[in-house]
Structures are given as C-alpha cells and as structure tokens.
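Summary for the steering committee. The consortium agreed at its last meeting that each partner would contribute one worked example illustrating the joint modelling workflow. Our contribution is presented below. We chose a case with several input lines so that the handling of multiple components could be demonstrated. No manual editing was applied between input and output; the record is shown as generated.
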Amino acid sequence: MPRSLQTPTAHEKDIHDPLATLRTKFHIPADTIYFDGNSLGLLSETVQTRVADTMAEQWGNDVITSWNKHNWINLPLTVGDKIARLIGAPEGTTLCCDSTSLNLFKVLCAALDINHGRTEVLSTEDNFPTDLYMVQGLQQLLGERCTLRLVPEQELLAAINENTAAVLATEVNFRTGRKLPLAELSAKAKAQGALTIVDLAHSAGAFPVALLQHDIDFAIGCTYKYLNAGPGAPAFLYVAPKHLESSRKPMQPLFGWLGHAEPFAFSVDYAPAKGIRQFLTGTPPILALAAVDAALDIFADIDMADIRKKSIGLSEYWLACMADEGLLEIMPSISPDKAEERGSQLAFEHEHAYAICQALIAEGIIADFRAPNYLRIGFSALYNTYGEVQQAVSSLATIMHERRYENEAFQQRNTVT
Amino acid sequence: MPRSLQTPTAHEKDIHDPLATLRTKFHIPADTIYFDGNSLGLLSETVQTRVADTMAEQWGNDVITSWNKHNWINLPLTVGDKIARLIGAPEGTTLCCDSTSLNLFKVLCAALDINHGRTEVLSTEDNFPTDLYMVQGLQQLLGERCTLRLVPEQELLAAINENTAAVLATEVNFRTGRKLPLAELSAKAKAQGALTIVDLAHSAGAFPVALLQHDIDFAIGCTYKYLNAGPGAPAFLYVAPKHLESSRKPMQPLFGWLGHAEPFAFSVDYAPAKGIRQFLTGTPPILALAAVDAALDIFADIDMADIRKKSIGLSEYWLACMADEGLLEIMPSISPDKAEERGSQLAFEHEHAYAICQALIAEGIIADFRAPNYLRIGFSALYNTYGEVQQAVSSLATIMHERRYENEAFQQRNTVT
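What follows is the complete predicted structure of the assembly.
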C-alpha cells in the first residue's frame, strides 16, 4: 500500500493548490493512488447521487412523464451544451450521445459529403485504432468514395494536400501524450480546402480547447476519461455552426427517429431536425446521460486554465521526482519535453512496462500499460495531489531497483490491459 | 386518483395469478395504475440495487480493474446471452449494445452484403418510423445499392419476391398491436431467397419468441419496454449462427475497436472478432448494461409461456370490461380480435384520443397516445393486475360519459406524446 509520507515540497505544493478541495467530491478508493484518469475517471458523489435520484425519482416515480417533466427528451442537447463550454464551442453545436466511434462515423460521412469530389481521409499511423477502424469500415461500405492515408504524426501537417477531404486527428496521442497544434492544423487544412475532424478523447476536461476559435469543422470525444462520467459513458460530437447553418439535406446517414424534425409525428419519411439535433439517432440512454450531466456540474465553476496549470504542475513534478530517483535513464519518457506540447499524461518506455505496471498496481498505484511497452501515467487536476506523485514515483523507484518486474505473477496478461 | 374498489371477478383472477408475487419486485408509483410498459417499463428494486452497486463497488472501488475483475469487457455478450434465452436464440448469437436504430444499421448492411446483387429492403408502411428512417439513411449513403419498398402490412408476405434482399418487419405493430406470423414470413422469404430482419421491440419480454426455430436471419430490439431496463437502455441484436459461421470478412461496417479480434493489441488494421462480437463498436456503457443485466435476472425463473398467458388474460379482461361499459362502440379497438394475433397491447381509436389519454393520466392512469388518434394500452404480465384493469376501464368509462376530453387543459400537446 502507498506510504503516507510526503516530502516537504509535495506538501507545500498541495497546500497552495487552489483546486485542492475538489478532491473531496470524488470517491478515492481505499489505499489507492489513482493515475489512470485518462482511461477511466473516478466516481464522484455528485454522479452517484444524480444517478440514484434519476432512477428513484424520475424513472421510478414519474416514469414515462419524465420525458417532458424532467426534459429527458432534450438531455443530449443540454448535456452537450455543458460540454461545449469546456471545448470552446458555442451553444447548440454539441451533442452528448452514442459512442465516440459512432459519432466519428456520423461526422466522417458529413465531411465527405460536404467535401464531395475528394475522397481522402488523412490521419496518423498512431492515431487511436478505433478512429482508423471507423474509416476502414466506411471504406468497406463506400469503396473508392472513401480512402484512408496514414502518415507519421510529425508529417501530418505537411501531408495535407489538395486531395484531402478531411484530416482526422486525435489532439493528444494516446500513447505519447503529444498534443497537436490545432491552430496550425486548422490553418493548413483550410489552405488546402480540407476539413478537420478532431478527436478530443484526451482533451475534454484536461485543458482548455478552442474549437470555434481555431475553426475546427468537426470534433468528437469521450466523457469517461477526464470528465469522470463513468465506464463507457455516452460520447459527444461537435459540428461547426457554419456547417449546421448551411446544410440543406440530412448531414449524416444514421437517420434515427430522434434526429427527425418531428419525431412524434411518426411520419414515414425522414426529415432532419434543424441544427445539431439531426445528429441524434435512437432513444437516448437517460441513466448514463444523467451521470454525464452530473459529472459536468463539477466543472461549472472551474476555469479550464486552472486545470491546465495544475496538470502541468503535477506532470513536471512527476518528471522531477523521477529525475531525482535516477529513473529517466532506465525508463525514458516518450512524451514531449515541453509541458505545453503535452496533454495531461506522461508515458515511459521499458521492455518490462507491463510487469512494472502490474507491480505498481500491487502497491495500490493505478497506472496503465499500452502496447507494445509503455507505462502511461494520467494526471487529473480534479483529484490528484503532489503528495501522490511523490509517493508513486518513490514506489516506482523501489520496484525498479528491486527488479520486481521479473516476478512472474506480474507478467501474466489480463484480457484488458 | 384510481379507486381501490375491485370487482369480485378481478379479485378472483388476481388471487389465482401465478405471477402475482412478481409485482412486489417493482416500484409501483404512488396512486398510479401503469399501462405504459410497452413504452417504458417500471423500475425494479433489482435494477436499482445493481446500478447503485456497480457505481459504488465496481466503478467507485475497483475502478479500471473492473474491466477484468467484474468482466465488464464481456458484459455485452453475457447480457446478450440472457436476452437470447427469451427470444429463442442460442448462446453467442445476441449482443446487448448501442440503440435499436444503430443495431438495425449494422444488420441491414450485413443483409445487403450477404444478399449482394439484390438491393431491395421490403417493409411495411406503418413500421415504426426509426426502422424506415435507418433504411432511408443507408439509401442516402449507398445510392442505388439500397432501395426501400413499402407495402401495407397485410400485403407484406405476398409482396416478397425475387428482388427482395431483406424483409424488415417489426413483429408487433406499434400502433395496432398486430403480431405478424414469423414462421410464415420466414418461409415466404426463404422461398424467394430473401433474408429476414425482425424488430422485436414489442416482443422481447412480452411473449415467447423462437428466432432459431423460425430460421430468422437477423433481429434487433429494445430493452426498455417489456424488459424494464430503464429509459433508453442499450438495445440488442441477433445474428443467425449460420451467418456468423460462414462470414469471411467483416459483416458490418461500423468497425469499432471492441469488435476487433484483438482490441488491446491496438493494431492499425481492423480485423473482425469471430462470431457475434464483431457487431460491437465502441466502449460499452457499463452502468446502463448493468441495469439491463439486473432487469433480465427477474426473468431467470419465469417461463415465457406463463407471461404470454397472463398478458392475454389481462387484455381479454380489458376488452370484456370495456364491452360491459359500452365503450367499444364509441372508441373501437384497432387491434386484432383474436388474442393470438396480438402482442401485449391494445389500441383504441377516437378523435379525442389525445385528450382522453391526458384525462386518464390526470386520474393516475398512465396509458399513451399515438398519432393520429389512438389510445394505446400496454400490459406487463410482471406487474399489472386484473384489479388495475377493472379500475382503469371504470375510470375510462367515467371520462367518456362525462366527456372530460372536451376540457381544454387535456388538449394541450406536450413535446413527447
């Protein structure tokens, strides 16, 4: 179990942390230091209470009348607007619905349709696989009307050309934590007549995002990482106002009844709702949306700039502690050196990264492993402390010096890694 | 509020109801008689407790390790297997995931691909709109590779011909409650080389379904009606074993990472998982799936034949009570006369059906309205009683005799009807 000792430095930093009280809103598992908020954010009292109330009061007591009485019918939009505030999007441009993969399918179709004549989706070789798979799936369906070109991440901007229909980029690389420069990406795409689709999975809730300011065309993202909305919680999608305003036919092909202009007229022919609502598909999952809604309320009074500041503080302190312990030589960072070029995570390379991660977990320190050989540390400014950083790195040092990763028990692979 | 009086007949029927004790598992809203289980089933203690535990124990305490420890990763399959038991499907053929609309998109693509060379999806004019919209969406995407032909429900079987790629039918009509003969539908389709896609939205949990026996190719359905899994709960999809076994390439184009053969290898190229798992897309919504899982546990020891028997008992008694009150002349049934030709609902036509429904709701009797002028009554064998039927019809008689539907307050339309 993690020791409760803390260096004076860590203690000092925690005392002066303006976000420190937020930690009390979360359920910190007993004897655990949690640095995996970039995979699954922690449960908060706010979410727990809201979901329980939504079940007991809304579903339990008001049942079907809740679609009106508790405005369930508009929940994907009202929750979407709360997400919008965190990603620099205006009201009425963001929905909370379906999964990131499915939302990507919708905006891919929309982008290829707007930029018809071009077929190429340009992305990076180490983009998160599900994003690439969704393009490959669309390719299977559309044949030559959709092509996928992959380039190394560092060549992405230079690779955009007059054939590119859409650039598909995850802002923060899920392995390295490298943060792409959205302003430059957008400018380069615009100059070549390409549209931009940005996956904000590791961005939303982690630092300020400025979609409208950077003139991004489409964005998608998930709510179960830095937004702490629960395992597999509904995802989000954003469509730039200019596209919503100029559309004259359905923008995407998943014509669910809740994207219809008049769902309760039950007419035979599809007619898309105006604006972002046409990106809705089936009946929204209310319990899950209530969890997202509550999780977002925690961000209501927070300036995302403060989140970013603390996130950088935690990660820089992690690196300093590792340097002090002499660990950076034996498990080098694969993340950018400059804090402003990173998201809210660090990753380290070691041939025994999997076993090292398991050894940490055995000590109550939750990080995660990403193939082929990376140890990934995610920092949540809402609940992580400098003291935790110091303790976790100290445990990591012990594990490395004692070569605990040679223990066979730590080398056995789980289904989910 | 509903009166608590009960005729001796109703009382007698309730005493002899072998499923009577199941009602205690559900949260019956105070002063309410609920005949809208075909729109949104009631909350049970089982679901409430499971969701609370999944939040507190699994997400809250075990956090990310729950993907292995609590087998979250396989939940869409294990819940799918529980649904399979209710719809006459073998293990490993049914998934609980996404929405009914999205699952329809997947199986539509699979059917058109298997039956390549044919383009026609044949359905009924009064199929539930979202089913028709999804075909129209696919049509927008694929152009002439997908066409939709609609015929009146009574002409469906005769309309299947050698051009039909797939017949898309909802087993129980959402307005009239008419139950299509799946055995005949399947036989006719097979004879013409057409595949069958059946929407079980109003079937699953309402009566026995025999998908494998009837050689149905694909099925989809929802869990928030007769399965009581909560508003907008994840839907299901079924693929016949013969198709799963013979597939040599990805069967559907929504290539999410959890449908990959090795999702945690994070490889660049999509390779479908074997069997039904390839119909998975993004990360599954665990809280919502836990609700479905628990809701299905209520069915574990129940014979679906008993559910069907009580469902028919309740609806026949409803009709008898209406006949006694002389109501069938003024608001005739649009449902089939023969109980075996109906699902678990009745519907009545009246020009003031909307206001009548509102007047019932004002009495604590929840039914629903469907455009243009139908009052719809859904029967759940798990929690409805004969006493409730008697009281509801008695209140309906009062409303009709006093012409309360002329009250302006009852004529104002809500967003969701």
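Chain B touches chain A through 93 residues (CB under 8 Å). The two ends of chain B are 21 Å apart (CA to CA).
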